[in-house]
């Protein structure tokens, strides 16, 4: 009897990493903001900024309470690369105190996070969004002559909104916090 349908090259199962230890968490279920951020290659600098603060990471990982959703307004990489003053830099007025610079950077990051889900798909009117930073409010204006909004008068949302089980991610072409 001829066996013409037998696969002489079995599949390579080593790609499944079965039985191998891996330090990467294995997530089954709905994607969180923390899950989706690494997939956005133009947000690596902002993602690294977020991960520098444990309180922010905890918020990005939360999925248990739908009332605790977040909206991230994430500056794309070229925004950070073009800044004259980096948000995490120690400045002369800091008296070389890295703790002061670190807290300013923390407030910078928190100023790009709104503590609820914000969607601009319906008719948007002018308004304000409170952020996780007590120092920052985002001013929202309907964009003139086209769909969309302007944030703080000159920052645009680029691309489509990215939805996660615990919030929404928008890529933006500027920063929302004065540095």
Automatic annotation (TrEMBL):
Q: Which InterPro entries match?
A: FAS1_dom_sf, FAS1_domain, Mug57-like
Region Disordered: list its residue ranges. 1-21
Alphabetized UniProt keyword annotations: Signal
* UniProt superkingdom: Eukaryota
Answer yes or no on keyword Signal: yes
Every copy of the FAS1 domain together lies at 30-176
Record-given protein name? 13600_t:CDS:1
